[in-house]
Design a protein that fits this description.
CATH architecture of the largest domain: Roll
Number of strands: 9
Number of helices: 3
CATH topology of the largest domain: Nuclear Transport Factor 2, Chain: A
Largest sheet: 9 strands, antiparallel
Strand order of the largest sheet: 1-2-3-4-5-6-7-8-9
Helix content: 10-25%
Order of helices and strands: HEHEEEEHEEEE
CATH class of the largest domain: Alpha Beta
Strand content: 35-45%
Structural class: alpha+beta
Distance between the termini: 45 Å
Length: 158
């Protein structure tokens, strides 16, 4: 076997191994669950914070090796998803917002960087003491989302 063929084979095998072990599991492994599967501390924390909200569903996820629970809800016209630890600690709050509620600088950045994009959905996300926004866009048949910081600066595109 010549040296070039040997290295090509080793390189191909390495690519296959890296591809197979490259973390095909998502950061969140969401799974719909029944109310009975939600820890009592989580249900109590939600009911105390949002007594008027109507629950739309429950999910169980894994985040950084920790089981977390998301309660999907609606209160009036506000859609809200809250992620809790198993002990009932709030980890993240996502609230649907109108385009008009996005930071002005963010709207300007969207118009500048994605002039042909239509805004689909927008969410205000509160996590770890920070506020940012996730905005779903559609441009020329492509759907994608961006994240804006509280000042409206684009910090990530998905």
């Amino acid at each position: 076997m010549n040296t070039k063929m040997f290295y090509a084979g080793v390189l191909s095998a390495g690519i296959v191994l890296v591809s197979l072990g490259s973390g095909s599991s998502p950061a969140y492994a969401e799974k719909k669950i029944a109310r009975e599967s939600v820890p009592e501390q989580v249900s109590t924390a939600f009911q105390k914070a949002y007594p008027q909200a109507v629950i739309r569903g429950y999910e169980q996820d894994e985040k950084n090796g920790q089981t977390v629970y998301e309660i999907e809800s609606k209160e009036g016209s506000t859609r809200r998803d809250i992620t809790y630890s198993g002990t009932g600690e709030v980890l993240e709050i996502e609230e649907a917002v109108k385009k008009s509620e996005l930071p002005q600088a963010g709207m300007e950045a969207i118009r500048t960087q994605f002039p042909k994009a239509d805004i689909g959905r927008a969410e205000k996300i509160m996590r770890d003491g920070s506020v940012f926004y996730e905005v779903g866009l559609k441009q020329e048949k492509k759907h994608f989302s961006i994240e804006l910081d509280a000042q409206g600066k684009i910090i990530k595109k998905h």
